[in-house]
Amino acid sequence: MKLLVLDRDGVINEDSPDYIKSPEEWRPLPGSLDAIASLSRAGWTIVVASNQSAIGRGMISVDTLNSIHAKMHRAAASAGGRIDAVFFCPHAPGEGCDCRKPSPGLLLEITRRYGLPAQKLIMAGDSRRDLEAVAAVGGLPILVRTGNGAKAEAAGGLPPNTLIFDDLAAVSAYLLAREADKGQAPQ
Fold it and tell me: Which of 7, 15, 126, 167 does the annotation list as catalytic?
C-alpha cells in the first residue's frame, strides 16, 4: 500500500493563527489539490492527521469541523483527487491525550486502520510536531515550507532524515519520481 499522511492546515490549505473555524475560512494552498489528485491517480491513499484544538477550546463544534472537511473532500474530488480519511485530535493542549501531535496516537491509529507497519508511514507536515509524531513511530518525516514550515526549518531541531520541500506539489513530484525510478514507493 502506498499511503501518505498529510497535516491539514499549512499543507493542504492556508493556515490561520486564529484557527480555521468555518468552511468559508478553508482555502486550499496553490497546487495542493492538484498534488493530491496526482498521487490519487497513481494509486496513493491520502489520509489527513490534524490537531483540531479549536474543538477542545470551544471555538467550533465537531459538526462544523465535519463541514470544513466536507468542503476539503469536495475540493479534492473536483481536482480529480481523493482524501481517503481524516483523523483528528479534538483536544486542547494540556489535556493529556495521546492523539495530539507530537504524540503518535493519530499515526498509530492510521497504521491499525490500514494494516500498515508504522515504519512505512510517510507524513508531510509544516511543523516540528508533525515530524516528531511520524519520527516517533519510525516513519519518514517530510517538511513543507508552506504554512509554518519555513519557520520550522529556520528554527532547526528537525528529526533526523527529514526531507524538506517547498510545498505539497514538490512532495508529490518527488514521491512519484521515486516510485517510477524504483518501481515502488520510497522506503
Answer: 7
* Cβ–Cβ under 8 Å, residues 33 and 77: no
pLDDT in tens, 147-187: 999 999 999 999 999 999 999 999 999 999 999 888 655 54
Q: 39: which residues sit within 8 A by CB, 6+ positions away?
A: 4, 46, 81, 172, 175, 176
pLDDT digits (tens, 9 = 90+) for 113-147: 999 999 999 999 999 999 999 999 999 999 999 99
Rounded Cα–Cα distance for residues 75 and 24 (Å): 13
Round to whole Å and give the CA distance between 150 and 161.
Answer: 17
Judge whether 167 counts as a catalytic residue. Answer: no
Asked if 36 and 77 touch (Cβ cutoff 8 Å), the reply is: no
CB 4, CB 172: distance < 8 Å: no
What is the maximal distance between C-alpha atoms in the chain? 48
pTM above 0.90, yes or no: yes
Element (H, E) at 48: strand 45-51
Catalytic annotation on 15? no
